[in-house]
From TrEMBL:
Family: Belongs to the mTERF family.
Example of a GO MF term: nucleic acid binding
Record-given protein name: Transcription termination factor MTEF18, mitochondrial-like
InterPro entries: MTERF, MTERF_sf
PANTHER family according to UniProt: CGI-12 PROTEIN-RELATED, MITOCHONDRIAL TRANSCRIPTION TERMINATION FACTOR FAMILY PROTEIN
Organism name: Lactuca saligna
GO biological process: one example: DNA-templated transcription termination
Keyword Repeat: no
Highest taxon in the source lineage: Eukaryota
Keywords of the record: Transcription, Transcription regulation, Transcription termination, Transit peptide
Pfam families xrefs: mTERF
Amino acid sequence: MLIRGISNRRIWNSDMISELHHLLCSPTVCKNACTGTGLSFVSFKRRNFCISEPTIRVKASVVCSHPSQAPVSGNRISRVVRTEAQTALFDYLHFTRGFHFTDAEHISKNSPNFIQNLLSVVDNDQDVSRALSKYFRYNPINEFEPFLESLGLPPSEYPSLLPKSLIFLGDDSLLLDNFHALCGYGIPRIKIGKMYKETKEIFEYEHGVLLKKLKSYEELGLSKSTVIKLVTCCPSLLVGLIDNNFLVVLEKLKRFGFGSEWIGTNISERTTLNWDRMLDTMSFLVQVGYNDKQMEILFTGNPALLFEGSGKQIYILVAQLLKLGLKMNQIYDLFLKNPQILSSKCAKNLWTAVCFLTEIGMETERIAGIVTTHMEILGSTSLKCPITVMNSLKLQQDELCQAIKKDPMKLVNLGSNSKTIDNQDSNTIVERKNFLLRLGYIENSDELSKALRKFRGRGSQLQERFDCLVEAGLDYNVVSSMIKRAPSVLNQTKDLLEKKIDCLQNRLGYPLEAVVAFPSYLCYDIQRINLRFSMYLWLLERGAAKPKLSLSTILACSDARFVKYFVHIHPEGVFTWESLKNSLNSR
């Protein structure tokens, strides 16, 4: 008998129930069976599309199935076969079951595991589309499975979320209504699965309730994009009334000087937010002695401090320092003087240093003393393992321990992973940091940490090179912007910078402003600049090149590309290019 799905609810008589039980639970279905006319039915292998043990029970004329998940075929499936299966599922959902086109298309294209399981019922030599169409007529599938998978949930997670007594999505009108409300608001379908898993109750709201809750957050001054980010990473905000702790966090952030959109720029779907812990973190920092302005500087440079783990990291760091024997008032003082230590990277570096000292046998009191006096440098330095340091220096454990006791900076100089920090004292790093802060880098930010590793030289040397560019005629703020884009500019000596600027203006004929668009010009080797521009000027004299090409066009391309477009372009180009190279090399 062919069973066609015409409506969401079906009345099954005892004969139908018996036949369905046979189809779903028997080892094979119509294997090579023939009709009386001699026409063969398409053969099917048994396949059950659900999770628990196969049982069929009838309650209030509704079929409730909980079959077990069949093994997925290990054979590789071609794209053509997969596409045919997706099309068959789409046709079933859209034309037979009456799903909206967009819903049917998304489910069919975003449920790969379900599609693969479907294909396990089709023999290799069969027409996939036709075979699955016939399969759907005789085998009602649990529509919640491909639906939940298409929302981003893996098959291992959604079994517990499947309704106990429903297999047709249309029978849960509230679920679909709230799902469409979220889609209509702009929440990506692939992220709704997480929301369904964590807060299933929001999909049981009456019509219009969920949309009203979303709009209520916009009334707080949040943009729609921020609301979408918030509810996808913290769907509990849509349960009950507006979370009071969230309102307090929002108000405090505004008091610190952050706009309503700041939260949205610092969270993602992977972020887990705990508003209670955030408030505790802020209260702790107030106890430390931070004022609103200091809070703004701290969170601007380290938003992860608040949003990654909702401030949990601070408590871990405090616990670690207490284990060293420090008192709370000492910890407060250290945090106030060294706010950068609260960043995840600095905290990790600090604790690595503590473990290093413990491993070489240093007493806890000595370790606490080194931490309190050298916290800034320890937080900014990544250390090697003690055994690596001892092997490279051919030192015994007690010898290394005594050396660090006499001079704690030996820990940084001997054990640092960073070549740019080796053999530098803390004064050099502090000087460099102060220079970068004057350029506009934010205190304790990741950007500042990266810049400290990129720049070479003392703060006074960097300042001298910076002043050289300003004295050449560039605006102070323009130079600051250039340095942020190309930090290695300040790794050139003052004399070299002056030579390159002179070459640019007097030999090449470019205005000084040309380096604003391409500050990396100042980083290239002077020989490369002379060679390439000599070739370019030779072409200009013969009308074989466009005038005033940008510096980046001439310098940034590879040697092979330059030869192709600036040498081979002229019949005498190769000879001239070789002559220029020989001339510059001999010079």
